[in-house]
């Protein structure tokens, strides 16, 4: 261990026996100056501080040092006034040193991970994207959501521990983090620690290598709310389970809230000690399921809102009918459709989503409802009637209104677009176009085509509409 790290570890131990005020006053800008054959020399920047430390804290420093490294048999204290210099980075600044313990997970909203001082630990923070009020509640998740709300309102109350289980991609992490965010909203001073069981395990492994599991214990035990995601990961990891068991008990006994998720109910957690399982079973257990059709549609609408996308009901409906595995997949298909459409300057259509689903091939042999690729592929628009049908359907207006006389904007745009597409995709003459559109004349259709052509250069939404319609036309 480097001498500075060693000194910090010793100071960390000293926290248990020396008051914080004393540490800040007498140990500020101290350092280990030398280390040799079980003897360490500690440097102190002022004479006065040196005398105080020698007089009051020699034994405590010695005990703390022994705890960190029991080969240490001798300690001496030297004056080294250079340490007072802020640039001397051998010295430990006690103000900084204590700050690391005040790290609150929510202070850095955009970063996913935060390093905890010199302990080498990292912890995942809450993602503000997950909230209890953007979690769409369906009949199958009502209980889970209600339990989370109750915990958000009163952590450490009736529902402790709260245990949420269910398959992958069904919203467990969302609920866990949403609850953490809710608690912080209601109690801004609480320390909420969110981590995955995998992360916790890795931290334990690292700490064992460095003979420093205390640091982890200290950190987790500072939590007012401990959230541990995917606890099934602890299976067959005895030492990790043991550490977790102690942390769990300590927090639980102090009425701190514990929230846990797992891919299966406590009883089915093979490879996890009975004593942990019975702790899990002592609180509130709720499960999450794959949502029904209506809820899936509502989730898609919520996600569109979050991403600021307007997507037709027909397309959302199509996605909701064809995703059968998880909410994550539901969201994934939607986002892929949006991303692809953006690349093509288009908007998602049933056809483009159908292609994505087909590529994902997650349905196996299950037919894709409302989408027959072969029929669509052969469908290439060849005449004006078909083209106008598609334009009308896309804008959700009647064919008679497109070709009719009304000059409302909601009919004008589809009409002009239809004319433009006839001209550019099916190479109709202006006269023929006019004829298809209710007997309008040459100059009307020419004007419409020029107008759309110009607008397409600056109106992105219009461009997306045109491209989407072209896709629907099989072009
Ligand atoms: P899990 O942890 O169970 O594997 P997640 O919580 O990561 O699943 O959920 C996967 C994705 O689905 C997340 O983006 C989440 O926001 C979303 N999600 C799941 N259920 C819902 C829901 N009921 N309402 C809104 N979004 C949801
Ligand atoms: Mg998860």
Could you explain the architecture of this structure?
The strands form 3 sheets. A 5-stranded parallel β-sheet has the order 7-8-9-6-10, with helices on both faces. Strands 1-2-3 form a 3-stranded mixed β-sheet. A two-stranded antiparallel ribbon has the order 4-5. The protein contains 21 helices and 10 strands. 52% of the residues lie in helices and 11% in strands. A hairpin with a 4-residue loop joins strand 4 and strand 5 (121-124). Mean pLDDT is 86; it is low at 103-124 and 373-378. It is α/β, with parallel strands linked by helices and 475 residues long. The structure holds adenosine-5'-diphosphate and magnesium ion (MG).
Properties at a glance:
475 residues, alpha/beta, 5-stranded parallel β-sheet, 3-stranded mixed β-sheet, 21 helices, 52% helix, elongated, binds adenosine-5'-diphosphate, binds magnesium ion
Give the SSE layout.
Elements: H1 3-14, H2 20-26, E1 31-36, E2 39-44, H3 47-68, E3 74-79, H4 94-99, E4 113-116, E5 121-124, H5 142-153, E6 162-165, H6 172-186, E7 192-196, H7 197-209, H8 213-220, E8 225-229, H9 238-253, E9 257-262, H10 274-281, E10 284-287, H11 293-307, H12 313-322, H13 327-343, H14 350-360, H15 373-378, H16 384-395, H17 399-403, H18 409-425, H19 430-436, H20 442-456, H21 460-472
Parallel strand pairs: 2-3, 6-9, 6-10, 7-8, 8-9
Antiparallel strand pairs: 1-2, 4-5
Helix pairs in contact: 1-3, 5-6, 7-8, 11-12, 11-13, 12-14, 13-14, 16-18, 18-20, 19-20
The chain binds adenosine-5'-diphosphate (ADP) and magnesium ion.
